[in-house]
Amino acid sequence: MATLTVTLQEDLVLNESQVGGTITKSITGINESSKRMLTITTNEATIATFSGAVGSAGHFNDGTVRYIRMTNLHATYFVALTLTNGSNDEFAFKLDAGQSFVLFGDNSTGMELIFNATQAADAASHTALGPLTTIQADAEASTVQIEMFVATT
């Protein structure tokens, strides 16, 4: 087993004062990782699925996923990413050129019971959290390369 160490660092000086910071998260027990380069077109496509089943190419056991990173490698175009949970709630967002999106799984249950995206969701909606089931992507224009990195226990 290995330890994945993720460091997020902001370096910002305002009025001659450093206001950025550094946060480091160590995730122990990592047994497997997947790093894939994906070509995203303007047609929405499923790029990853999650369930209790054994993992395979592009499919991950939701209970073992501890970390996901998506990076848009294009210099100009964005990618729209849509995350869906077991209740078919969807969370869609724009990942602009050169940007990354990071999602840490629950420390013990991974992507099980990770989010609620209903219109009425609020901070007290933790009782309605659902498991991540799919990630879909479509490009703003042409084709866009993204990198997907997933670490599992």
Produce a short descriptive summary.
With 153 residues, the protein is an all-beta fold. The protein has strands spanning 2-9, 13-14, 17-18, 22-30, 32-40, 45-51, 59-61, 65-72, 79-85, 90-95, 100-104, 132-139, 144-152.
What are the defining features of this structure?
single chain; 153 residues; mainly beta; 5-stranded mixed beta sheet; 4-stranded antiparallel beta sheet; 13 strands; 0% helix
Task: Explain the overall architecture.
The protein is mainly β and about 150 residues long. The protein is about 0% helix and about 55% strand. It is built from no helices and 13 strands. The chain has strands spanning about 1-10, 15, 15-20, 20-30, 30-40, 45-50, 60, 65-70, 80-85, 90-95, 100-105, 130-140, 145-150. The strands form 4 sheets. Strands 7-6-12-9-10 form a 5-stranded mixed beta sheet, with no helix packed on it. Strands 5-13-8-11 form a 4-stranded antiparallel beta sheet, with no helix packed on it. A two-stranded antiparallel sheet has the order 1-4. Strand 9 and strand 10 form a beta hairpin. It is globular, with a radius of gyration of 16 Å. The termini are close together.
Record the SSE blueprint:
Elements: E1 2-9, E2 13-14, E3 17-18, E4 22-30, E5 32-40, E6 45-51, E7 59-61, E8 65-72, E9 79-85, E10 90-95, E11 100-104, E12 132-139, E13 144-152
